[in-house]
User: Fold this.
Amino acid sequence: MNRIMFVCHGNICRSPMAEFIMKDLVKKAGLEDEFEIASAATSSEEIGNSVYPPAKSILAEHGLSCKGKTAVRLKPTDYGKWDMFVYMDDFNRRNISYIFRDDPDGKIVKLLSFAGSGKDVDDPWYSRRFDIAYNDILTGCKALLETLTKE
Assistant:
């Protein structure tokens, strides 16, 4: 079982987009029984809120639903429950490190590193470019799935 937690600042844009993109890729590959996929925030200001409407819209444009998803916060106890914490930008990495204090198993990884890039997935909350965020996340998720299915 591959247990993947996608992480961003508020869990209302990038990480839920990654969660539902990855779930769709896994489903299309017929690998649903081999994966558990979720997403969380490093901050608490959006906890309980649903996915931000422009993020919902871009997912819907690609035939994906995030119905019922509400923001949750990453907790120190999550470290033992998940195999991988996939973050969107270096700011997220810093906050994840603050929450976990340590990463002895090397579980914290940047999404676009799977696609051979050190690039951040820019936060569309600020850039308003949900299309670019979607495409970057899709690229990263495809590369992540390819990496995990080769192992």
Observations:
- The domain at 2-150 is CATH 3.40.50.2300 (Rossmann fold).
- The longest helix spans residues 130-150.
- The helical segments are 14-28, 53-61, 90-100, 124-127, 130-150.
- The mean pLDDT is 97.
